[in-house]
């Protein structure tokens, strides 16, 4: 019988985390490395990636690349397998939120949001899935959002993309889980990151969001460690196509 501790053991696994230079992506990349995985971080800012590698314990590598370029994605998918070999785990954490009112959204802003938040997770997973299939084991964790199901002001493009991520996750599970690749999504509540800077720069707004949770506070990076480790490991062997809200009960009220 598998021991409880071994269910969460990532030793020998190879993971890629997009958006690893900051915020939730950086926290995810660090946690996986500390749990024993060999982690490749992908983001645009090379200096921030080097800072992440210097501070984290474990085996890491980084690739500075622009996920916003569709033409670059095939090359990025190849490069992430170079440092440690074929990937077992893909964490799609990179994203953008322009926070524009519906009347102000431009076609360029809409296309960029959909591309980074929805198209990139699919195309990377599609490129990396064959190697996972050959080994009969894989984990894909997409980052969804409260806005996957809730409509927020100035969030029409972001919300549309994150609603798409929830359905994309189910479709990935339908397509690949019979080959051993489980696909799930995390939907964080309010966490202090670069992306949520406008929220936390307003103490009154941040406090109002905290009061709307069941727990009574906003998220801290440590709150993501357990849920992410669960979805990235053998512990979630019979869990696929699911969206897990890590929001302190915000959506429960």
TrEMBL record:
**A GO term for molecular function:** oxidoreductase activity, acting on the CH-OH group of donors, NAD or NADP as acceptor
What InterPro entries does this protein's entry cite? NAD(P)-bd_dom_sf (IPR036291), Sc_DH/Rdtase_CS (IPR020904), SDR_fam (IPR002347)
Any Pfam family hit: adh_short_C2
- Entry's transmembrane regions: none
Instruction: Share an example GO biological-process annotation for this protein.
Output: fatty acid elongation
The domain of life for this entry's organism is Bacteria
User: What's the family?
Assistant: Belongs to the short-chain dehydrogenases/reductases (SDR) family.
Matching PROSITE patterns: ADH_SHORT (PS00061)
Species for this entry: Fulvimarina manganoxydans
Query: Any idea what this protein is called?
Result: Gluconate 5-dehydrogenase/2-deoxy-D-gluconate 3-dehydrogenase
Entries under PANTHER family matching the protein: BLL7886 PROTEIN, SHORT-CHAIN DEHYDROGENASES/REDUCTASES FAMILY MEMBER
Kindly give the Gene3D superfamilies that the UniProt entry links to this protein: NAD(P)-binding Rossmann-like Domain (3.40.50.720)
């Amino acid at each position: 019988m598998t021991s409880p501790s071994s269910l969460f053991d990532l030793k020998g696994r190879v993971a890629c985390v997009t958006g690893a230079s900051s915020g939730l992506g950086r926290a995810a990349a660090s946690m996986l490395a500390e749990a024993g995985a060999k982690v490749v971080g992908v983001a645009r800012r090379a200096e921030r990636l080097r800072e992440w590698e210097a501070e984290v314990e474990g085996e890491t590598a980084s690739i500075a690349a622009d996920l916003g370029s569709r033409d670059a994605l095939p090359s990025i998918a190849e490069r992430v397998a170079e440092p440690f070999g074929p990937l077992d785990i893909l964490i799609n954490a990179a994203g953008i939120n322009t926070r524009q009112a519906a009347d102000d959204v431009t076609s360029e802003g809409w296309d960029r949001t959909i591309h980074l938040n929805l198209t990139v997770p699919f195309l990377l997973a599609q490129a990396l899935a064959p190697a996972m299939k050959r080994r009969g084991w894989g984990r894909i964790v997409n980052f969804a959002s409260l806005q996957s199901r809730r409509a927020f002001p100035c969030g029409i493009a972001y919300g549309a993309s994150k609603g798409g991520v929830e359905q994309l996750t189910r479709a990935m599970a339908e397509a690949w889980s019979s080959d051993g690749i489980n696909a799930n999504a995390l939907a964080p509540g309010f966490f202090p990151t670069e992306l949520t800077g406008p929220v936390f720069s307003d103490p009154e707004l941040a406090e109002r969001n905290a009061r709307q949770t069941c727990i009574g506070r906003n998220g801290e990076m440590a709150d993501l460690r357990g849920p992410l480790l669960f979805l990235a490991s053998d512990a979630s062997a019979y869990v696929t196509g699911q969206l897990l809200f890590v929001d302190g009960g915000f959506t429960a009220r």
